[in-house]
């Protein structure tokens, strides 16, 4: 038996940079597609708001439920690195289908099915590789994942600004094709530089044979067929969400029973914090549903200062405010974590999440009040302020989801538990789409932005309830958490 190689700090950072690069280009493709998709469904496919929201909810759920299987395949069958690469190829194929297939609901569902399966293979394994690179350095994990979260948002920001512009001037097909080209660049770079990961001894490739890889690819195509059936049928999607939630919790119970006694307390903490963090994605889903429709119909795209127009945003480009704020706030938080950590007063993950939900309440309070008073032409600066609060909340809640798994879950279960956390996020997104449909087409009889006031008010109150309930739980179990 060969001794395990202990990588140097430089080798770790080089390996991290390879994963970061392909993740950056993957986010370029994914968020560029997402920035175009809602407007494409409304303007090109002429779908109702209700159908758009539910299709986005079902596809979002699949994109985050599929990582349960993707994480397991990476852990047990072909290894995280190969699973991540197959997933990237699946995502690229989905964008190509959106660009080249006829524009119809049927072909849209096929394309989204490829994207869902590709995301399922890519996401948990990319995060798990980062976790393996820095395994054993728990103090560094929060900082590394915060930096990781920040850097991949560079690709998101550029893409969300660029793709709606391409959509406006050259059509949605060109935008989707650019998403595919961006991811292709990331895949090629990964293939060229993947040797930097070899020295890290992340997995034993002798156990991963060609037969396993072929089986995974074949299974991926079968999964595409299943996803397409789900997307085409709202009843199947609803029952699938219920089944998925049930299976996640049964899976967690199974892991708990099979775990060692000394691992169980940490697992309970991991489960609780994962559920708490997943609530954020109910609110996050509004960015591609109600908030995009809100900006499309009721928010001015002209950013003005002292009566002078500075620049103009299309409705899809407003989604870029989220990654922009992530880029601005992430280094601040990473620096703050390190400073507070040096004086041994770093808040717990639970405390960070509770602060996040308090800030999230401010975002929806701002949108609630502006929708009451703004008439038909809401100032775009309102969206800037709201997304700033929402992005800070993301970093303090959902953004720490993978750090929770890395800190409290046994290493041998990292991929599958990461996948189950993604599944919770997907379920929350589906719930978020249902909530977005509180604004139905029939409610357009109300005047302008006022139709969104009730929705934003309820979301504000919901976030505040989570915040206050969490404080009570923290007081009751502060030592435990």
Short summary of the structure?
The chain has 481 residues and is mainly alpha-helical. 77% of the residues lie in helices and 2% in strands. The protein has one domain (9-477): Growth Hormone, Chain: A (Up-down Bundle), CATH 1.20.1250.
Question: Can you describe this structure?
Answer:
The chain is an all-alpha fold and 481 residues long. The chain has a single domain (9-477), classed as MFS general substrate transporter like domains (Growth Hormone, Chain: A), CATH 1.20.1250.20. It has 19 helices and two strands. It has a two-stranded antiparallel ribbon. It is globular, with a radius of gyration of 22 Å. The protein starts with 8 loop residues before the first helix and ends with a helix. The model has no long low-confidence stretch (mean pLDDT 85).
Write the layout of secondary structure elements.
Elements (H helix, E strand, L loop, with lengths): L8 H35 L5 H17 L1 H10 L3 H21 L4 H29 L4 H33 L1 H22 L1 H4 L11 H23 L1 H25 L2 H18 L1 H5 L5 H9 L3 E4 L2 E5 L8 H22 L6 H25 L6 H17 L4 H8 L5 H23 L16 H25 L4
Antiparallel strand pairs: 1-2
């Amino acid at each position: 038996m060969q001794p395990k190689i202990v990588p140097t700090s430089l080798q770790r950072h080089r390996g991290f940079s390879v994963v970061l690069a392909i993740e950056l280009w993957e986010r370029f493709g994914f968020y560029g597609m997402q920035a175009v998709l809602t407007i494409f469904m409304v303007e090109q496919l002429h779908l109702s708001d209700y159908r758009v929201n539910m299709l986005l909810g079902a596809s979002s759920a699949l994109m985050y439920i599929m990582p349960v299987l993707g994480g397991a395949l990476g852990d047990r069958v072909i290894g995280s690195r190969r699973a991540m690469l197959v997933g990237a190829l699946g995502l690229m194929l989905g964008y190509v289908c959106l660009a080249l297939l006829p524009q119809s609901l049927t072909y849209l569902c096929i394309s989204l099915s490829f994207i869902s399966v590709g995301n399922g293979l890519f996401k948990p394994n990319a995060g798990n590789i980062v976790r393996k690179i820095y395994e054993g350095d728990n103090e560094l994990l929060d900082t590394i994942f915060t930096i990781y979260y920040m850097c991949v948002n560079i690709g998101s920001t550029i893409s969300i600004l660029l793709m709606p512009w391409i959509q406006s001037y050259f059509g949605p097909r060109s935008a989707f094709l650019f998403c595919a080209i961006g991811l292709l660049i990331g895949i090629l770079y990964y293939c060229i530089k993947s040797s930097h990961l070899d020295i890290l001894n992340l997995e034993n490739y002798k156990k991963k044979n060609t037969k396993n890889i072929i089986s995974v690819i074949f299974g991926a195509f079968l999964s595409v067929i299943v996803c397409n059936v789900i997307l085409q049928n709202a009843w199947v999607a609803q029952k699938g969400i219920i089944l998925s939630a049930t299976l996640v919790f049964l899976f967690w119970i199974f892991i708990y029973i099979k775990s060692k006694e000394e691992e169980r307390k940490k697992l309970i903490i991991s489960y609780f914090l994962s559920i708490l963090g997943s609530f954020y994605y109910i609110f996050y889903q509004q960015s591609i549903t109600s908030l995009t429709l809100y900006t499309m119909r009721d928010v001015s795209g002209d950013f003005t200062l002292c009566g002078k127009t500075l620049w103009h945003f299309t409705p899809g480009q407003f989604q870029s405010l989220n990654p922009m704020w992530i880029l601005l706030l992430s280094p601040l938080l990473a620096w703050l974590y390190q400073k507070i950590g040096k004086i041994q007063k770093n808040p717990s993950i639970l405390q960070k999440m509770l602060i996040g939900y308090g800030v999230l309440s401010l975002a929806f309070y701002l949108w609630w009040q502006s929708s009451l008073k703004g008439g038909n032409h809401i100032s775009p600066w309102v969206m800037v302020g709201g997304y700033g609060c929402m992005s800070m909340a993301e970093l303090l809640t959902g953004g720490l989801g993978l750090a929770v798994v890395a800190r409290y879950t046994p290493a041998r279960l990292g991929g599958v538990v990461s996948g189950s956390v993604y599944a919770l996020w997907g379920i929350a997104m589906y719930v978020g789409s249902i909530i977005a449909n509180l604004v139905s087409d029939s409610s357009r009889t109300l005047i302008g932005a006022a139709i969104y006031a009730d929705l934003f008010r309820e979301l504000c109150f919901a976030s505040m309830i989570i915040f206050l309930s969490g404080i009570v739980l923290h007081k009751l179990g502060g030592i435990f958490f």
